[in-house]
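Sat 14:20. Reprocessing the chain from the morning session after the first attempt stalled halfway. Input below, unchanged.
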Amino acid sequence: MIGQQLRPHDALLARFGGEEFIVALPGLDMDGAAAVADTLRRNLRDAPCVSNDIEVRITASFGVHEIDPQAAGSSIDEALLRADEALYRAKADGRDCVRTSANVPA
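Finished this time. Tokens:
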């Protein structure tokens, strides 16, 4: 489902650790990426996985950060840190939500 939802955005999807994924959404700004993340979050929540007549509800928390490739000194490590901080803010705010690095102090 995640891949299907991201395909129209030419996104790069990669697993990053046990339960974490990284998604690169080229051409989208922070608001656009957050909107894609929120749509994905709602679709995951609203479509339970069914196995042997058992429904498993899935929720997801998202941390979104925008990389400015023109910014001096920007690095992948810094971008991952900022996205991770936003993710942990989403988890602290009750999970099943989207938070951006714009809302997390640097």
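The helical segments are 2-6, 30-46, 76-92.
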